[in-house]
Design a protein that fits this description.
The chain is an alpha+beta fold. The protein is built from six helices and four strands; from the N terminus they run ααββαβααβα.
Length: about 180
């Protein structure tokens, strides 16, 4: 707003703003902002899998429904209840020094293929490009736009568990809670 009185800025910025408003992700997030502020929270689509990992992705697992707001620990507890009743058919509780039991999660926004973490990074960079253009217009130094320091999506998608602790938790599940 402070720059609108700078000679030539409003005309120049109109094109920059148009670039932003035409970007499908920025347009979607702008609409979602209004929904979140005035109506309800943004709840992304969610999926999950239970299995084992060697910290390079899922080594072996089974997808199953995980509600977007459900904690991964609760999802693992659901598997343990099932394993106590029906057996550990995935074998994730079997001794294995090279892998860890895990829950893998994914969150996505309707209409976009990328994981929500990657979408946020893209949106940040897109808005950063506009800010950099404004700084350049003002004759200021433009800082580098980079997310090289960002950790990979795998670190966000995976929750690993200590196998011995999971076995203890499964043993502690009361038999009466396993009735159909």
């Amino acid at each position: 707003m402070a720059l609108q009185n700078e000679k030539g800025f409003t005309t120049w910025y109109r094109d920059e703003r148009t670039k932003l408003t035409r970007d499908p992700l920025i347009k979607f997030l702008g609409k979602q902002r209004d929904v979140v502020v005035h109506q309800k929270m943004l709840i992304p689509k969610s999926g999950g899998a239970v299995g084992i990992t060697e910290l390079r992705g899922m080594k072996f697992g089974l997808t199953f429904p995980v509600r977007p707001l459900e904690d991964s620990d609760d999802a693992m507890q659901r598997y343990l209840h099932h394993a106590k009743k029906q057996g550990d058919f995935l074998g994730i509780l079997e001794p294995d020094e090279e892998s860890l039991p895990c829950i893998q999660r994914e969150w996505r926004l309707e209409g976009f293929d990328d994981d929500i973490v990657d979408l946020c990074a893209k949106a940040w960079l897109r808005v950063g490009e506009t800010i950099a253009a404004v700084l350049k217009w003002l004759g200021e130094d433009v800082p580098p736009l980079s997310l090289d320091c960002r950790h990979g999506t795998l670190k966000v998608q995976f929750r690993t568990y200590d196998r011995d602790k999971l076995r203890e938790q499964m043993r502690a599940i009361p038999s009466k809670s396993l009735k159909k």
